[in-house]
DNA sequence: CAGGATATCCTTTTT
DNA sequence: GGATATCCTG
């Protein structure tokens, strides 16, 4: 791989703060990963000294993979690579907290949906309904209706730089209530994880804060921040705090690609970076290797239409191998959306099989469906005509960025069940909805199914919480109707898709029940039903062919936002309508009705400006490697009847044609061949355990997404683990806890939010007993702790990685090293599965330190459970390595069969009813 | 061309 | 129910 001089400058700059301004297609990820590999060659630099932030988990996975390959290329060692943090800032902060702050071990993270459920469920206590607005018509926010806005207010107050005095006192009161409630329930929302970590790191005076600073900053020598243009003020504070100890900082970004300002991104971070940090070296990567000179020139035109003062100076230049030809770039106008959709399909058919060269040294291949991407400002509002046309013509497609789970007939049918439970519809409605959705074969006996529902409905207030578990009800209902992949009418492919939908619904139930587990039965069903109609549809995406690890050869329909970071040989940007793209400003009760806009430094970020939309258009254009068709057709009403200014901008560019001439039949065509990438498979230890137990159970749980019912004792095992983690971590710091600390430990770590009071008391007792037993039996060995909760990775080659955490690594009196796994219940697990699992741990340890452990141990904390200890054997290690690789290949081939017949794995399987009838047992 | 009346909208998405 | 774009009127 050869680099340009500026790329090399960026890679080699390891001793100064560095700003890499990377244009679209400039090989950014490659440069960053190479630089990290280079850092590892610096004498004295260990993987644990490097932290790299990305914006998404997906980007993190990609960077990790790249770094690994670069390290291998550079002949470096992959030893200990698991100690390098590559991930989002959220994940990093959570990791720091849960590594160093025992009080936070028990905290769980609220997602966007569960956070909203939480706010609505506790609307008064969370301050929602007392939060004032500046509108006479809406004196305060309303439950349900305004909870989303309230979420935004809560994050702006913490993530932005807010002029405290300009925010009304009552708004602050609401805010304080929310924060108090969040802590009381032991939750972090996304913002709070970062804020908590930042405040600890900033607090130089606090004794404990200083200890954490020493740990964190002591290890950190190099910090890399990708997508720096999208960093918000709180995240900038984190970066500041992390580099305050003098670590080297490298930020990478492109101010022209700031597209998340409505989430608080602050472009000025990147614009003024060089002034705000010491001795900054700036490297501009303006060679675009991705696109033809036509695309690059159009992209530059778009970027340069932005006001000059608001950008970093750079001139994107075409430097790749893609050739521009007249006719590649089109700006076309159509009379109707249907005509536009039809032309797009024609154009795809025309381009299919046309020779395309992926890289400078690659052989030509024929373009295939997955080489085409159609990018919309709003898929939800504009993509329907194209989807209809693609379906009509049998062209495969996947739609990204659309929450339509609840539009599907299957889920609509499932929802009727809950309408029935609250007495809104009769049994005939339910039955006919299910039959219309073709989930069950017609003529199925519905008696037992309604029996399940009757039992659920008859539950009285005061019953144990576990009894009117909605998840249980759902799974029982599917079991009663014998809904399984092999009984769903239609082809196996259809059955699989239906199962993905049903699995997602199971996830929705889990989200709801996490917050509403303890609501009284009638209220709970009612709340669930309302949530299903009003809120849930906005959060859950329909499943299409793009699921699991298999990669379909299908046209991609996506929003511009979701296409960020992607590239495609041919890109379509249709529906360039005025008031849609650029989008017009919107009305309604908004952020600034709660927080005055003067309280925020750059309020326009949250409003959206033409410049923001221009940057979005820039992102859309620069996704294309060669072919790009921008088009307009008048939309449904007069607001969208005229073309966007972007149409004019595009058509005045000299590389763009405004008329399309069909390629003649003489043009050379190759067999369509999709770009082949071997998907990366990353598994955790616990997922792998299920896979070893039964591949089909793994599929039901992790690919389809079915969740077992929430268990009332949930949290017990984690609490024990956390308590022991504190014991061992303190030991590493030289503090030895004893039996006298048991009560404290249990208080701090045992969090069982779903336990009814009597159970809770039981769990406290058994947790204390378990810890006391541990101190009795192993107290003497605690000082021999080498690692507690050690992050490990196993790289198996061929893109298969296993991630995990080893509970304990300790030295025995024999001076041997043992890898230890705690089990909190004696719940039987076949012995061979346990051994497989432990050998994977051993592999992880080997990759961490370079030699395998001597022993692997299972320590059962339960009083009856038995503990095992065995020697690590090389042949077993090799065999396990092989089995994990095989698992990765099976996953990629979507080959996850069920066992031949009912077996012992089925006996303990929570989702066995979705697999086979119990009559077979 | 200014200003009032009317029609139409109420994204985008990551953690 | 509020904000905005565009239409309409003089």
UniProtKB/TrEMBL annotation:
Entry EC no(s): 5.6.2.4
The keyword Kinase is annotated on this UniProt entry: no
Reaction catalyzed: Couples ATP hydrolysis with the unwinding of duplex DNA by translocating in the 3'-5' direction; ATP + H2O = ADP + phosphate + H(+)
A Pfam short name: UvrD-helicase
Domain UvrD-like helicase ATP-binding: 1-292
Domain UvrD-like helicase C-terminal: 297-565
Cytoplasm listed as a keyword: no
Gene Ontology biological-process entries: recombinational repair
Binding sites annotated in the UniProt record for ATP: 22-29
Keywords: ATP-binding, DNA damage, DNA repair, DNA-binding, Exonuclease, Helicase, Hydrolase, Isomerase, Nuclease, Nucleotide-binding
GO molecular function: 3'-5' DNA helicase activity; ATP binding; DNA binding; exonuclease activity
InterPro entries from the UniProt entry: DExx_box_DNA_helicase_dom_sf, DNA_helicase_UvrD-like_C, DNA_helicase_UvrD/REP, P-loop_NTPase, PDDEXK-like_dom_sf, PDDEXK_AddAB-type, UvrD-like_ATP-bd
Family under the similarity heading: Belongs to the helicase family. UvrD subfamily.
Name of the protein this chain belongs to: DNA 3'-5' helicase
Source organism (scientific name): Propioniciclava tarda
Taxonomic classification: Bacteria, Bacillati, Actinomycetota, Actinomycetes, Propionibacteriales
């Amino acid at each position: 791989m050869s680099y340009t001089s500026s790329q090399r400058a960026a890679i080699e700059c390891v001793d100064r703060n560095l700003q890499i301004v990377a244009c679209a297609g400039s090989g950014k990820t490659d440069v960053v990963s190479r630089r990290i590999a280079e850092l590892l060659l610096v004498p004295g630099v260990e993987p644990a000294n490097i932290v790299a932030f990305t914006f998404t988990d997906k980007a993190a996975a990609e960077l990790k993979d790249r770094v690994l390959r670069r390290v291998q290329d550079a002949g470096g060692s992959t030893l200990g690579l698991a100690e390098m943090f590559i991930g989002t800032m959220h994940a990093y902060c959570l990791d720091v907290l849960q590594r160093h702050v025992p009080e936070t071990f028990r905290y769980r993270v609220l997602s966007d949906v569960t956070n909203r459920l939480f706010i609505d469920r506790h609307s008064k206590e969370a301050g929602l309904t007392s939060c004032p607005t500046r509108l006479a018509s809406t004196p305060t926010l309303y439950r349900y209706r305004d909870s989303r806005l309230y979420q935004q207010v809560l994050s702006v107050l913490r993530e932005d730089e807010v002029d405290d005095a300009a925010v009304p006192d009552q708004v602050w009161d609401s805010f304080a209530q929310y924060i108090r409630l969040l802590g009381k329930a032991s939750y972090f929302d996304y913002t709070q994880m970062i804020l908590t970590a930042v405040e600890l790191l900033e607090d130089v005076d606090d004794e404990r804060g200083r200890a954490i600073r020493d740990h964190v900053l002591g290890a950190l020598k190099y910090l890399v921040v990708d997508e720096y243009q999208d960093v918000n003020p709180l995240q900038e504070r984190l970066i500041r705090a992390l580099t305050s100890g003098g670590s080297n900082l490298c930020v990478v970004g492109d101010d022209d690609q700031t597209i998340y300002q409505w989430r608080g991104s602050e472009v000025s971070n990147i614009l003024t970076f060089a002034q705000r940090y010491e001795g900054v070296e700036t490297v501009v990567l303006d060679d675009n290797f991705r696109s033809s000179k036509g695309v690059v020139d159009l992209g530059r035109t778009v970027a340069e239409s932005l006001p000059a003062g608001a950008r970093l100076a750079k001139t994107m230049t075409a430097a790749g191998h893609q050739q521009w030809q007249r006719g590649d770039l089109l700006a076309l106008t159509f009379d109707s959306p249907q005509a536009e959709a039809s032309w797009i399909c024609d154009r795809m058919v025309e381009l299919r099989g046309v020779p395309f060269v992926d890289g400078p040294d690659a052989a030509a291949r024929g373009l295939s469906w997955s080489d085409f991407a159609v990018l919309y400002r709003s898929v939800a509002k504009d993509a329907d005509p194209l989807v209809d046309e693609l379906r009509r013509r049998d062209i495969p497609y996947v739609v990204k960025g659309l929450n339509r789970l609840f539009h599907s007939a299957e889920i609509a049918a499932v929802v009727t069940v809950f309408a029935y439970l609250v007495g809104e519809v009769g049994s005939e409605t339910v039955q006919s909805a299910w039959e219309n959705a073709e989930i069950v074969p017609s003529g199925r006996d519905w008696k037992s199914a309604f029996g399940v529902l009757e039992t659920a409905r008859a539950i009285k207030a005061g019953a144990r919480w576990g009894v009117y578990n909605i998840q249980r009800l759902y799974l029982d209902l599917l079991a009663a109707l014998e809904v399984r992949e092999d009984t769903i009418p239609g082809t196996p492919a259809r059955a699989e898709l239906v199962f993905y939908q049903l699995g997602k619904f199971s996830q929705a139930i889990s989200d709801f029940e996490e917050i509403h587990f303890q609501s009284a039965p009638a209220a709970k069903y009612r709340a669930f039903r309302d949530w299903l109609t009003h809120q849930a549809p906005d959060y859950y995406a329909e499943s299409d062919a793009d699921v699991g690890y298999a990669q379909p050869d299908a046209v991609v329909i996506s929003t511009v936002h979701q296409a960020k970071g992607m590239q495609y040989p041919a890109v379509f940007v249709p529906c360039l309508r005025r008031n849609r793209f650029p989008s017009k400003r919107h009305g309604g009760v908004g952020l600034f009705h709660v927080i005055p806009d003067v309280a925020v430094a750059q309020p326009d970020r949250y409003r959206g400006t033409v410049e923001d939309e221009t940057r979005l258009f820039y992102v859309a254009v620069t996704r294309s490697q060669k072919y790009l068709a921008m088009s307009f057709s008048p939309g449904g009403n007069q607001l969208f009847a005229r073309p966007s200014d972007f149409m004019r901008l595009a058509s005045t560019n000299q590389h763009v044609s405004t008329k399309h001439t069909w390629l003649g039949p003489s043009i050379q065509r190759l067999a369509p061949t999709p770009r082949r990438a071997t998907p990366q498979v990353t598994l955790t230890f616990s997922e792998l355990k299920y896979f070893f137990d039964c591949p089909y159970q793994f599929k039901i749980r992790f690919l389809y997404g079915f969740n077992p019912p929430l268990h009332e004792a949930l949290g017990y095992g984690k609490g024990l683990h956390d308590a022991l983690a504190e014991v061992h971590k303190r030991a590493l710091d030289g503090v030895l806890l004893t039996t006298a600390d048991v009560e404290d430990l249990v208080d701090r770590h045992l969090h069982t939010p779903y336990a009814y009071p009597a159970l809770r008391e039981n769990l406290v007792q058994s947790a204390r007993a378990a810890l006391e037993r541990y101190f009795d039996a192993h107290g003497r060995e605690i000082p021999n702790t080498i690692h507690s909760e050690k992050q490990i990775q196993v790289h198996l080659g061929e893109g298969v990685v296993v991630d995990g955490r080893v509970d304990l690594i300790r030295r025995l009196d024999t001076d041997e090293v043992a890898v230890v796994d705690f089990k909190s219940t004696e719940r039987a697990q076949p012995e061979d599965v346990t051994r497989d699992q432990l050998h994977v741990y051993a592999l992880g340890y080997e990759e961490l330190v370079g030699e395998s452990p001597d022993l692997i141990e299972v320590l059962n904390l339960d009083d009856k459970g038995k503990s095992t200890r065995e020697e690590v054997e090389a042949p077993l290690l090799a065999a396990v390595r092989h089995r994990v690789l095989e698992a990765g290949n099976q996953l990629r081939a979507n080959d996850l069969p069920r066992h031949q017949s009912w077996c012992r794995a089925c006996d303990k399987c929570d989702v066995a009813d979705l697999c086979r009838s119990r009559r077979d047992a």
